[in-house]
Write a structure and sequence with these properties.
Two copies of one chain form a homodimer. The first copy, chain A, is of the alpha+beta class and about 300 residues long. Chain A is about 30% helix and about 25% strand.
Chain lengths: ~300, ~300
């Protein structure tokens, strides 16, 4: 009886399983390897040996798919930029800087050469802007029924003392976010600038207790950070910095913001904000919530006031 | 007039362009980055600084697509193994060893959970067999019309003195190949063992002048090695070691052998073969041709005897 239940469960399709649950199911029990400091679960894997003084290696892969992450009639140079910039954003969110990228570009055979070249122009622009090399990869034709996609692998470096994880937030830490949120779909998702410079400044001057980039919206990503740290969190809805035309809910859930989500001891917030304003006068940094001790009940709950609570 | 010709050329589809030509068109002019010793064009990118004593980093990405590299009803654990083993083979062909891998798994929503888990079991087996960690990646559902694919990124290491490129063969070098060729499609393409141990032994004891793995058949891959070295080559057709049931042409062109193609000074061949037989008594190493100075005519020519000549 037990066996037949198990096989029924194994035969169900991926359609019926949520994304986070699927990844947890598939990656649990993977061997991390001798030089793995951080494996599955953070913005990047961190490779190195405990106590080493040389920079750690950051390792990330990220994939964009036509009609999911961009439309077929998008400017191909922007598509190429986006593919690279997403990975740069993940490297930055660990406190590091990018070194080299490989791109796997799978294109439908009817794609024009001009479109393919445009994608590589976008890669090149991102590499020059953020100082990494495009050192190889693969260009394949998709099967006739397939769609276009780009998978990027990126290597970065980070000094051991400046590497920031998402799993090391502390109870009572303040939560801050860079920039403004929401409405990325109107175009910014193809042209955004990863907060690499800002993240490097943060880890040097006000090292956060935890950090990640906001790719799926603060309402999904902050609870992930809190959960990775074994903690809960609250969001001050009224404090969320919004882009023009966005409701609070848009700003919380739209995704593809690629801003930095930062936690820091509450006593350091004033000083951080003062330093930030002097360094980045045109980019807001906003306190939007706090990390909290985990309540006995571990479900996500929504407050009826201006705060959302995620246990 | 010129302009309209250029745009006509840009608007042609990828269908009309050969694979090597397409890659050359798209990757020419890419910025390699400050720490890139070898970029586009070899089995792996090589990252490091000239003169460094610490191991170089090897960086590779490789992708397999359903109904191109495996059939939809294949054993998923073998599919996962193959995805990893192909990248291990490339790391080995540079003289290195694998450290860590990331896997991007894109699956059609109707794929069963059991199939997805099987793929990860194959990853895990490869990681344990060759001593690298599976440190993350991505699992996405393909759009309804898309097909399953797996992209693997792998990091390896190699001592600077043991790193072997494909572009450093010398005129008059002997060409050797490990194992037997052809017929991989009958099943071996899903279960092959990359020649990692053999490659490490070679770079330690009889460092080849150039090396690569045979993925598209010796008849395509040896001319690539020769071309990368600015040289030509000849293949002794009758010497080609064949798998059972394979003609010479099968062995030369079938592909997916994942054997090592090695060049070495002709004076060292006898000594190498003797050492090899003592070390790997069950795996043949066979002399199959030579590297030649480039003739004035630079086309590929076929001899009418037992030798194929590639200028």
């Amino acid at each position: 009886m037990k066996k037949s239940r198990a096989s029924a469960s194994e035969s169900r399709s991926l359609r019926s399983i949520g994304e986070d649950a699927l990844i947890a199911l598939l990656t649990s029990g993977l061997t991390a390897g001798a030089e793995t400091l951080v494996g599955v679960g953070d913005d990047c894997a961190v490779l190195g040996k405990p106590g080493q003084r040389a920079p750690y290696t950051l390792f990330k892969t990220d994939c964009i798919v036509e009609n999911v992450h961009y439309l077929a009639d998008a400017d191909p140079a922007k598509v190429g930029w986006k593919a690279m910039a997403r990975a740069v954003s993940d490297i930055g969110a660990m406190g590091g800087w990018p070194i080299a990228a490989l791109a796997t570009v799978i294109l439908h055979p009817d794609t024009s050469l001009a479109f393919a070249r445009g994608i590589y122009r976008g890669f090149q622009k991102a590499g020059r802007t953020y100082g990494f090399g495009i050192v190889g990869g693969e260009t394949s034709r998709a099967p006739q029924s397939g769609c276009n996609m780009i998978s990027v692998s990126m290597l970065g470096k980070v000094e051991p003392g400046r590497c920031v994880l998402r799993s090391t937030a502390q109870a009572d830490d303040a939560v801050l976010v860079t920039g403004r949120l929401g409405g990325s779909i109107c175009g910014r998702h193809l042209t955004f600038q990863p907060r690499l410079e800002q993240a490097r400044w943060l880890v040097e001057h006000f090292k956060p207790s935890a950090m990640m980039d906001v790719s799926d919206g603060v309402a999904r990503d902050l609870p992930r950070l809190a959960k990775a740290s074994g903690l809960a969190c609250s969001i001050d809805r009224d404090a969320i910095p919004r882009n023009r035309g966005c409701s609070i809910d848009d700003a919380l859930t739209d995704g593809e913001d690629y801003e930095l989500l930062v936690t820091i001891h509450p006593a350091r917030v004033e000083c951080l904000l003062e330093g930030w304003r002097a360094q980045f006068p045109r980019l807001p940094l906003t306190r939007i919530g706090e990390i909290r001790a985990k309540a006995a009940s571990s479900d996500i709950t929504f407050g009826d006031g201006g705060w959302d609570h995620f246990d």
